[in-house]
Design a protein that fits this description.
Helix content is 1%, strand content 47%. By secondary structure, the protein is mostly beta strands. The strands form four sheets. It has a 20-stranded parallel barrel. It contains one helix and 51 strands. The two termini are 23 Å apart.
Length: 621
């Protein structure tokens, strides 16, 4: 059962109703002043390098505790500045010089436009402001050096793009998001920013987009958060809904004038919840998730990320009218994947049969088969590489949970490597297709990886496990090494960590490598389902016409039930077989100095052990 949740997002009845009355049309120039509010970084933090991810939580916030913007008297719209200039005409406020501008009050059917020099910097301070527009982006910035959008402390700010959803043909002079910027853009502040993007994207920056500190709620038709060149999130609380697109996405893949590779998503802090029709996080190049350091107080920041895609998002498939209906008073669906929901599936000790979860109706003894949407609906996807070294990540994807492509051609004249590396953090993955899929190589050296249910648990051309605590349940193969992008001999290498693999009944294997299985360390516990076509280890593929290899040269390999492929034992490794029936249930496998608690879903005959560390037993608990 999922323990960590955020505000159930913008679709509640509280967030996007009309801001208030219109302002009168006028023409003026103003240089008013207003004092700004200083901000400090807020973060989920830990002071030690060694993190207990089970102790990290983000409290669920009931929507009744959120201010109803329909009851806030925003007052007359105003812009104040001590160092800038702007003009206004017919509800369009145009900022014409660098400076800091404070926006407050209600601007309905209006717009704030930033038109300054390419070397200028502009800060928009949002001080309880509501801006709505049904003809263009409510906030629209041209090409400048940097745009900062700062929600002042203890304020709630609403940006509503109420245009009809964009079609195949559209006016390219219009902004593509409720907030649309052609400059490097920073979203900061200790207040709340709520964005409704009926037309296309929620927040769209054609350059580098950064988020720090703010609470940012986005409810969009297409992408919730798009930064063409890059997206960097260091802290804050982000609640992102996309009804027809991606949650977080980058686009460009060339090299910048400063020599930086474009197209990367970097997340080093913050609490992020994503509901998306397509991919939750999509990196045009890389996706990097890691524990950062708060630049203000030096504490460690730990990202907490929850992703639901396609059928497992409560908000998929909505059009403009549905968005507006959900955003209106009394509208919206707050159910679905909230605390108290049933995770479902066939997990040891878990509830079986969660109707809304991938494979949730599959009982032990059945194989659901891999399912995915007719669009890419992966939890985290990159066209090059994914690196995860920290964070607490939970994904429910109607596709692969984590996926890296191989061979994509980039504008930087390179091609995608198709690798996934996990060296830390805590991952809980629930997928209708693969839990972790790399077209090239999956490498796990640390952290905790739990695939609660997937068709193939971990799949790649090469799978390397050198550390970490890894637990996999799959309705087909737990680990599957097969020829993918680079067309190398499929190989599984185990040199450290723990691995516990279970599978459903059917033509299923705990560990399946189409060429080789090598083990030099670590503790592996695997099994099939007890049927004639299910086994704990299957190495080789009749269609490859090549010699298959299975070797245990170190560590411990334990198989409940006879493996289809019998590994050879290297020097110092002994093999022991214990006859008898091991009924379904919980067991402690142990030797004199190590133990692991595992669960058998089926009754299996015999215990087969290869080990370089003494005698191992399996005791039912």
């Amino acid at each position: 059962m999922k323990k960590y949740y955020l505000l159930p997002l913008l679709a509640s009845s509280l967030l996007f109703a009309s801001c208030g009355s219109k302002i009168s049309s006028n023409t003026s120039t103003n240089t008013n002043t207003n004092n700004s509010t200083d901000i400090t970084t807020t973060s989920i933090s830990a002071t030690e390098d060694s993190v207990n991810y089970d102790e990290i939580s983000v409290s669920y916030i009931d929507t009744s505790e959120v201010t109803d913007v329909t009851e806030v008297d925003y007052g007359t719209f105003s812009i104040t500045t001590s160092d800038g200039t702007y003009t206004s005409k017919d509800g369009v406020y145009t900022i014409t010089s660098a400076g800091t501008y404070t926006l407050a009050g209600t601007l309905e059917d209006g717009q704030v436009v930033v038109e300054v020099g390419e070397d200028d910097e502009v800060t928009l301070e949002l001080n309880d402001v509501c801006i709505s527009c049904d003809s263009d982006s409510p906030i629209k910035a041209g090409e400048l050096d940097k745009l900062k959008i700062k929600s002042l402390k203890d304020t709630t700010n609403v940006i509503r793009d109420t245009r009809d959803s964009r079609g195949e043909t559209y006016d390219e002079t219009l902004g593509n998001g409720a907030i649309y910027s052609k400059a490097d853009t920073n979203i900061v502040g200790k207040g709340t920013l709520k964005v409704l993007g009926c037309y296309y994207n929620g927040i769209h920056c054609t350059k580098d987009l950064k988020v720090k500190n703010s609470t940012v709620n986005v409810y969009s038709y297409n992408n919730a958060l798009k930064g063409n060149d890059s997206i960097t999130i260091t802290s804050g609380t982000l609640n992102l809904i996309s009804t027809a697109g991606n949650g977080i996405v980058t686009e460009d893949t060339d090299i910048s004038s400063k020599g930086n590779q474009r197209g990367t998503v970097e997340i080093s802090g913050g609490a992020i919840t994503i509901y998306s029709y397509k991919d939750g996080i999509q990196g045009a190049y890389d996706v990097n998730i890691y524990n950062g350091v708060d630049e203000d107080d030096g504490t460690q920041t730990i990202p907490v990320i929850d992703i639901y895609t396609n059928k497992y998002s409560d908000y998929s498939g909505s059009n403009t009218s549905t968005l507006l209906a959900k955003a209106a008073p009394g509208g919206g669906n707050q159910g679905g994947n909230q605390p108290g929901g049933n995770q479902g599936g066939n997990q040891p000790g878990g509830n079986q049969g969660g109707n809304t979860q991938p494979g949730g109706n599959t009982q032990p003894g059945q194989s659901s088969g891999g399912e995915s949407a007719d669009v890419s609906a992966k939890g985290i996807k990159a066209e090059n590489e994914i690196a995860i070294s920290g964070g607490k990540i939970s994904i429910e994807a109607y596709d692969d949970a984590i996926h890296a492509n191989y061979g994509t051609t980039f504008d930087s004249n390179t091609s995608g490597l198709g690798n996934i590396t996990i060296s830390g953090g805590s991952l809980t993955l629930y997928a209708s297709d693969d839990g972790i899929h790399a077209d090239n190589t999956v490498t796990i050296t640390g952290g905790t990886v739990t695939v609660t249910e997937a068709y193939e648990g971990i799949e790649g051309n090469t799978i390397n496990i050198a550390g970490g605590t890894n637990k996999v349940y799959a309705t087909d193969d737990g680990l599957n090494a097969a020829k993918k992008g680079p067309e190398k001999n499929p190989t599984i290498n185990i040199s450290g960590g723990t691995l516990d693999v279970s599978v459903a009944n059917g033509d299923t294997d705990g560990i399946d490598s189409n060429y080789a299985y090598y083990q030099t360390g670590g503790l592996v516990v695997t099994r099939g389902s007890g049927g004639n076509t299910s086994t704990g280890l299957d190495v080789g593929d009749e269609g490859m016409n090549s010699t298959s290899i299975a070797q245990v040269n170190g560590g411990t390999f334990i198989c409940f039930g006879s493996p289809e492929t019998t590994p050879t034992a290297g020097t110092g490794v002994s093999k022991k077989t214990t006859s008898g029936t091991y009924a379904a249930g919980t067991y402690v496998v142990s030797n004199s100095n190590q133990s692991l608690t595992v669960v058998n879903l089926f009754s299996l005959s015999g215990l087969y052990v290869w080990s370089d560390s003494g005698t191992w037993t399996a005791t039912k608990s």
